[in-house]
From TrEMBL:
Coiled coil: none annotated. It holds the Pfam family BLUF. This is BLUF domain-containing protein. InterPro entries: Acylphosphatase-like_dom_sf, BLUF_domain. Residues 5-101 form the BLUF domain. One of its GO terms (molecular function) is FAD binding. The lineage of its organism: Bacteria, Pseudomonadati, Pseudomonadota, Gammaproteobacteria, Oceanospirillales. It comes from the Bacteria. It comes from Pleionea litopenaei.
Amino acid sequence: MQNQLIRLTYASTATFKTDIKGGIESEVARILLQSRRNNSRIAVGGVLHYGDGYFFQCLEGDESAVKSTLQRISQDQRHRDVQILLNVQIQRRLFEDWSMKYST
C-alpha cells in the first residue's frame, strides 16, 4: 500500500556568498544535480526557484519520501531559516515528470 501523496512548499535563506568562486549559478547547479539524483531515486518531484538570496521549492511525492527530503534540506548548510509554507495531501501530482525543475 502506497503512503499518501503530499505537496510541500518551503522557503529558505541561502547561506552562500554572492562572490563565491564560480558564482551563484555554480552553487545552484550543484544543488540541482544532487536534488535530481536523490529525487529520481525516491520518486520525489518538484520545482526549485532561487532569487535574491532565497530559495522557494515545491516538493511532491510519497509523504515519507518528501518529509525525508525536507529533513535533508533543513540540515544542509546552504539553507537557513527553512519555513514550511504549505503541506497538503494531494490526489495527483503536478510535477510528476520533473525530478527537479529549476526556475529563475
